[in-house]
Amino acid sequence: PIVELSKKTKKSYEFFEQSKEVMPGGVTANIKYFAPYPIVMEKANGAYVTDLDGNVYIDYLLSYGALMLGHGDTRINEAVIEQLDKNGTNLFGTPHSLEIKMGKKIKEHYPSIELLRYTNSGTEATQLALRLAAAYTGKNKIAKFEGHYHGGYDQVLLSVNPSLKDAGDAKNPKAVMESKGMDTFHQTNTIILPFNDFKACEKILRANKDEIGALVLEPAQGGFMLAEKDFVHQLRDLTEQLGIVFIFDEVKTGYRLALGGAQQLFNVKPDLTTLGKVVGGGYPIGIVGGKKEIMMESAPTIAADVFDTSQSKNSSAKDVLFHSGTYNGHPTILAAGLRTIEILEKELDRVILLTDELKMRLEKLFKSYNIPMKAVGTGSIFSVILTEKDKILNYRDLQKTDLTTRKEIDFYLLAEGIYTKPLNRYSLSTAHTMKEVEMTIFAYEKVLKRLYGG
Ligand code: PMP
């Protein structure tokens, strides 16, 4: 399938050769690369992207789930232009009204959020959440799950995608570093837990309860592999008992699984929540919110003497948590994000129904070819998993599914105009309709016919 795709994407190849002269490996984020070379997109509209050679694809990558309204939604553009017309970027470097408007909207959908802070990315959001937890509990270690991603910094870049031979015991996974150049300190400071195995988690958490200040999880791993409901509630109870701050990283699931994210589906209140992607309407953002008493760790103190110069450092005694950022709460981005959320209040249900339809039709199609496949996911995101198992519960289960065939299918689908990065998930948007679902099923049918005959 790669040869076939290469014939259609010659310009992408040529462009990529030039990219290598500018950026290491030709990319500015490692995730943008896939072998033999990434397809380079030039245009986008609604549910479609067009590459340099003029090939048109239905976009299911949607910039890793960020584009909940598809590409170029005029309603977002209008909100952005309205903001720009007022005062340019409106970047005053002071508090402003959209921070409050957006905050109120988020609080409406996420009752666990009493106060919040804006950041520039999901990465920064989880970083701040973990610092808040450490400040609040006085405990510096963190616990995270094998296979879960929370950003690219040392503290959490462990056992995200480890090779199974390095990963240790399934019930007590090793902390495997995911990058060269990392501080090895985090291999002991970050404790790795097995997803959806409460007994194993309980044992590890109890044994380290005096040192672990935060437990962070993706309530649906990779956005699609939903935690078991009991598991989440058991963790909620246990973390409360052990004085561990329970953090839901909803950067991917927020406004995608439901308006109120996975926590709405579970009917659970985490202590802290991180959001990103969708809430920026296609622009960079992150949000951290949660319990007032934890969030207040970051509130600047009012010094008795306003001319005390040490105040400029926020705290002379370092008794306030540091959080800052030139672009935090960027008005243009909040305008785009707020408009997106307002639209989703009316349209998310339809996207979810459409996703259910696509999942059902795909499963039916694979069944007619006698290929065991599950469309695993909830809300507006899912992944095509080739497995005979009834349930895929964690990273190791996923690694044992037929990823080789999945990848082969993905490359054939690229040549048929169905776009997601090979092995990636399918995210839908308000721009997707039944027409795209039909086209996708048609493309899949063509590919399965080629691979399996009939
Ligand atoms: N947490 C989760 C669950 C994510 O999926 C991501 C991004 N894929 C991040 C955090 C990091 O977000 P960003 O890429 O905006 O830094």
From TrEMBL:
Keywords for this protein: Aminotransferase, Pyridoxal phosphate, Transferase
Domain of life (superkingdom): Bacteria
Cross-referenced CDD domains: OAT_like (cd00610)
Transferase recorded as keyword: yes
GO molecular function: transaminase activity
Organism: Alkalihalobacterium chitinilyticum
Lineage: Bacteria, Bacillati, Bacillota, Bacilli, Bacillales
Keyword set includes Nucleus: no
Required co-factors: pyridoxal 5'-phosphate
PANTHER family: GLUTAMATE-1-SEMIALDEHYDE 2,1-AMINOMUTASE, GLUTAMATE-1-SEMIALDEHYDE 2,1-AMINOMUTASE 1, CHLOROPLASTIC-RELATED
This protein's name: Aspartate aminotransferase family protein
Family: Belongs to the class-III pyridoxal-phosphate-dependent aminotransferase family.
